[in-house]
Write a structure and sequence with these properties.
14% strand, 340 residues, alpha/beta, seven-stranded mixed β-sheet, two-stranded antiparallel sheet, Lauroyl/myristoyl acyltransferase, transferase, single chain, acyltransferase activity, globular
Length: 340
């Protein structure tokens, strides 16, 4: 924010440079966030979920971009729902969104045995068994409590988790994800070598597969609920190189803070195809199947279709009002399928 002209100081003034001031503010903000995370982590899970749902109700009520983007994604991906159903799912999703982010500190900082004790059921656990000395690629979409899913995977055996270093709170995140014994592989060429070596040793590899790749290299557009989405090819490359099978796993949040249910699902056929588009389409079908189990717990506010094939309109624009957003989507031609 610039100062009014009457308050502009000369270069010889002793005030801190703007960059240093911003850095100081960022440091104080991070310290405040750390304090808040540790405070919330002490609360019972039921209180955390109630608080998260209550605070998120403000996002439901007040026009804002997260609310609009979630509705855009839901209306685009689930066109068979009526407008009333789409808005209801969006509202339920934002309440779950609040629970997701407030419970993270609890999952990061409470004792491992206590956190794992929140798991009430594991469905498809047999899919986690490794066979013939091969490793296993485990894909955990951003559904429910993905931090819990990663912790649960790491106690099954030696595990390497693909990880994007963060600008803020990085040491806290790294310490939390290592508690079960996992090794973190950064999203770099070196990190990919760590994943390959882990699979060749017959270990687990964990990857979050549902975000848009930053680079075109190693990615193609493939249908996600029928809409072209830029999709990673890393999973396909790892599976083809090492022969490791692929499964999906996520932690569903149970109602009334009763804990979590782990789901393990087989990957669709073709995820290890030599054809990049077939492999990417299979990856997205697997994510769709996971979302179908608990659609309100997916990160619908995330701009999954930020990058669009040439000639297709941008999605995340326009008014913040629900009715106007739905009307705009109805009038636009939203492309479906994979471009050739």
């Amino acid at each position: 924010m610039s100062l009014p002209s009457s308050e502009v100081r000369s270069p010889s003034a002793t005030a801190e440079p703007p960059t240093a001031d911003r850095s100081g503010r960022a440091h104080l903000r991070e310290r405040a966030i750390r304090w808040l995370i540790r405070l919330i982590a002490r609360l019972p899970l039921a209180w955390i979920h109630r608080l998260g749902a209550t605070l998120s109700q403000l996002i439901v009520w007040l026009p804002n971009r997260q609310r609009r983007n979630a509705l855009i994604n839901i209306a685009t991906c689930l066109p068979d729902l009526s407008p009333t159903e789409q808005v209801a799912l969006r509202n339920a999703n934002l309440r779950e969104f609040g629970k997701t982010y407030l419970e993270i500190g609890h999952l990061w900082l409470r004792p491992v045995d206590e956190v794992l004790g929140l798991i009430r059921e594991v469905r498809g656990a047999e899919l986690l068994r490794r066979h013939g000395g091969k490793g296993l690629i485990v894909l955990s979409p951003h559904i429910g409590a993905w931090e819990l899913a990663g912790l649960y995977l790491s106690i099954q055996g030696p595990t390497a988790i693909f990880y994007k270093p963060q600008k803020y709170l990085d040491d806290l995140i790294v310490a939390a994800r290592r508690r079960g014994g996992a090794r973190l592989a950064p999203i770099t060429a070196k990190g990919i070598r760590v994943l390959v070596q882990a699979l060749e040793r017959g270990e687990y590899v964990g990857i979050l597969p549902d975000q848009e790749p930053k680079m075109d290299k190693g990615a193609v557009f493939a249908p996600f609920f029928g809409i072209p989405a830029l999709t990673m090819l890393l999973v396909n490359r790892l599976a083809r190189r090492t022969g490791a099978p692929v499964i999906f796993m996520f932690a569903e949040r149970l109602p009334r803070a009763r804990g979590f249910r782990i789901h393990c699902l087989p990957a669709p056929d073709g995820i290890d195809s030599a054809d990049d588009h077939q492999a990417a389409a299979a990856l997205n079908r697997g994510i769709e199947q996971c979302i179908g189990v608990c659609p309100a717990q997916f990160v619908w506010p995330y701009k999954r279709f930020r990058r669009r094939p040439e000639g297709q309109p941008k999605l995340y624009t326009g008014p913040l009002d629900d009715a106007q957003t739905l009307a705009r989507l109805a009038s636009d031609q939203v492309g479906r399928g994979t471009p050739t």
